[in-house]
Amino acid sequence: MKKILVTGGAGFLGSHLCDRLIASQDDVLCVDNFFTGSKRNVAHLVGNSNFELMRHDVTFPLYVEVEQIFNLACPASPVHYQFDPVQTTKTSVHGAINLLGLAKRTNARIFQASTSEVYGDPEIHPQTEDYWGRVNPIGIRSCYDEGKRCAETLFFDYHRQHQLDIKVARIFNTYGPRMHPNDGRVVSNFIVQALQGKDITIFGDGSQSRSFCYVDDLIEGFLLLMKTDLSVTGPVNLGNPGEFTMLQLAELVLALVGGRSKVSFHALPMDDPRQRQPDISIAKSTLGWEPKVSLEDGLGETIAYFRNLLAL
Ligand SMILES: NC(=O)c1ccc[n+]([C@@H]2O[C@H](COP(=O)([O-])OP(=O)(O)OC[C@H]3O[C@@H](n4cnc5c(N)ncnc54)[C@H](O)[C@@H]3O)[C@@H](O)[C@H]2O)c1
Question: Rounded to 10 degrees, what is the CA torsion of 91, 148, 24, 56?
Answer without folding.
Answer: 0
